[in-house]
Specification:
The chain has two helices and 15 strands. By secondary structure, the chain is an alpha+beta fold. The chain has two domains: about 140 residues, Sandwich (Immunoglobulin-like), CATH 2.60.40.3350; about 55 residues, no CATH class. A hairpin with a 2-residue loop joins strand 9 and strand 10. The longest helix has 29 residues. It starts with a strand and ends with a strand.
């Protein structure tokens, strides 16, 4: 597989002197590679204890890209390689880069270095340059917070919780239906001695019919309820 490869030295302390010949094309897709020697004051750097080596890029239009796919070549000598993403090369002009090394609970930044992205004449379609830094940084932070956690257990617990909530809602609805005692009545011009049923259907809810007359108590010796085809009956209170 053919790559456009440049080898550069990047130092933790000393300013990095990037060769002016480091140039990539805007249309380089999965083919622009940096071979990086990470050094400390000009000497080789043992990164065998590093847990991650990442890079961030600031493009000429001010947007940023974050790449966490630095591949080790020789960790004992601090040698890594990275293939630049299409979005990293989306903006024509100077690109500034920096390497971030995570080692135990420490993060070390190298000095910045740069390269140039030239315009490609092979296509009229311009690649839209976007800012990916914020989104990817949040994903990384979320991953660090969940490190060592039982992800499968969390997902399973969430599924069980959702199922339990659904079951509670169904049970609550069933109990609400059971708690309502409904009786359909046809009534006459008045409750006492009614002889004809009106066409109005009255739905009485609850355990008592006292609310039929808007009272809290009824005298059972005075009030009777007319039921079509059954005659009258005392109102239970």
């Amino acid at each position: 597989m053919t790559f456009k490869t440049y080898e550069i030295n990047v130092d933790l302390v000393n300013e990095t002197s990037t060769p002016a010949t480091v140039r990539f094309s805007q249309n380089d897709q999965n083919s622009a590679k940096l071979l990086i020697n990470i050094m400390n004051k000009g000497g080789e750097l043992d990164l065998s204890q590093a847990t991650s080596v990442r890079m961030s890029f600031k493009k000429s239009d001010g947007t940023r890209v974050f790449q966490d796919d630095c591949q080790p070549v020789n960790v004992l000598k601090g040698k890594y390689q990275i293939v630049l993403k299409t979005q990293t090369l989306a903006a024509i002009g100077n690109v500034y880069a920096q390497i971030h090394i995570t080692e135990n609970n420490r993060v070390i930044d190298t000095q910045q270095f740069g390269f140039v992205v030239k315009e490609s004449l092979s296509s009229d379609d311009a690649i839209e340059s976007t800012n990916e830094f914020g989104v990817i940084q949040k994903v990384i932070e979320a991953g660090e917070k969940l490190e060592g956690k039982d992800i499968d257990g969390i997902i399973a617990a969430g599924a069980k919780a959702d199922t339990a909530i659904n079951q509670i809602e169904i049970l609550s609805k069933d109990l609400s239906k059971q708690d309502i005692k409904t009786q359909m009545l046809q009534h006459g011009p008045n409750v006492v001695n009614a002889t004809l049923a009106s066409p109005l259907n009255v739905e009485v809810q609850g355990r008592t019919l006292a609310n039929l007359l808007g009272r809290t108590t009824l005298d059972p010796s005075k009030y009777y309820l007319f039921i079509p085809n059954k005659g009258t009956t005392k109102i239970p209170v």
